[in-house]
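Trying the structure run again after the queue cleared.
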Amino acid sequence: MNPAVSILIPVYRSERYIEKCLQSVLTQTYHNLEVIIIDDATPDNSMAIVDKITAQYPRNGMRIVHHESNKGIAATRNELLKLASGEYLFFVDSDDYIAQDAIESLVSIATQANADLVRCNYIALKNNTETAVSIPSFKDKEQLLKRHIAAWDSIEAMWQLFIRRSLITDNHISFAKGINASEDHLMMIKLYLFARIIVDAPKPVYYYRIDNELSVTHINPKAFHDSMYKGMDDAINFLKKNGVYDTYRDEVLTRTFLTKQTFLLSKENRDIDFFLDAHPECNPYYRKFNFSRSQKFLFRLADLRLRTLLKIITRFL
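Done. Tokens:
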């Protein structure tokens, strides 16, 4: 079998890394590829480098789209999904790169297992050091979803998934509009819930750059946390709509609490009213974690809904 694969690359502020990214994609050992690049109005020199590299490696199935104004990662990825025509999809972030045989390996695994999703191990890159990372195995889809929903200190990203395109089109799955941080987490919940067969690729094929200071996690912390919380709110609504919220309630509330704790503890992000009123059912979840004594005191006041006292105390923190 030789199914077509769409490699989807959103480009924004990646001039330091885009050359290596594209070289890794355009020199794949697997040839039935469609490569779609969207320039989300990047303000740097990224697209000049894209033009140079694509001229050096001309190929059929290459498409480059330019946005006149920045639309954000969620809208850009949705556009990439609409443009894609391959039987399988693979997202590659423009500051990362993939092994030369990545697609060949993933196609082989997906077709042999008739899988809707293949999960990928990866190499983490930081300060010129490579660290192999193996994603945790799972016994069934419920365990996988529970672990994914509650995940906080692990990487959960779309590039970890090699996706059968019909999984997305048949179930009308898309990225949530306006959520440009932690958007992968919500999208992966949808994919995991609807997938029939999910398998793991044993060999790492993706190289993930942790130390890119221009990534969304390093820009505008307030907007980042606002978007993360909105993502969890959408996840709750999605799970309720599909009748499985009760199955994953504990994991959802754990993640929601961890997402919104910054609105109480962080001076820069503090919003006492929001912390108290947004999904208050998760406020007691502070008991599950090892916070400091002073932090636990604040959470206890919040649990008792002592709004005025909380506002007075936090003025001095």
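Residues 282 and 303 are 9 Å apart (CA to CA). Worth checking whether this holds up in the mutant runs.
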